[in-house]
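Researcher: Here's the sequence for the chain we discussed earlier.
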Amino acid sequence: MSESKIDELKNLEEGGLKCPQCNNLCERTEIDVEGLKVRGWKCAKCKYELLSPGALEKAYLFLQAKKHEKVKISKRGNSYMITIPKAIADALDLANHSVAEVFLEDQDTISVKI
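Model: Thanks. This is the structure I predict for it:
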């Protein structure tokens, strides 16, 4: 990696990113994307927000997972099962054999906590 690229990456980590709107220096901050906190940069002057590619992917997966999907309930032995849609599994970075807590919240709501 060239020395100029290394300097550019150091500047990004130190908050040295210039705003594409007003050319002001952006500050490192947490950005709220519909309830998900991701790291990014925000311009103090014009309030323009930027996300890194990793944070952008995380936010995209989170937003995809927030869409309501209908799933089937099936029976296995004495237990009932539902499947977790792939978008949700990807957003939560679930792995096979992950453990979750399941509880009844009210008459119409079953919650799953990872």
